[in-house]
Amino acid sequence: MVHTGHPLVSDLPRKLLDPEWMPRVADRGLVVIGRDRHLHTRPGERELFAAHQLRVLRIGGSKDLSTWDQLARLVTHWDTIEAVLRDRPTGPWLYEILTTRLRDVPVTGSARPRGHHAAPSHTPSCSQADG
To answer: pTM for this structure?
Structure first.
């Protein structure tokens, strides 16, 4: 795992604009982990998302989470995340990491086949509200 500003990705400095980093990250085959809920919906970015087959894990929820709570959510779902990476090695795709499950979010403007929901069959589900 690397982050912006990490020496292994020196061409991805902190505060790089989305249209600048998205192709670089996707073309390297890296997966984005973040909180930006509009990444796949903004004009221009939507096209980059699809064209470069970006893969995103978005930490979901309606309230801001502490760094610790974000990490806990990732760790809780790590086995499912690894299954998604195995089952869907190419993008574009976006999964929202909720409290109790991963949710496959349709990527607007992508070439993804209609009705394709490749969440692993063992993805936990819940009957209570996620967030």
So the answer is: 0.77
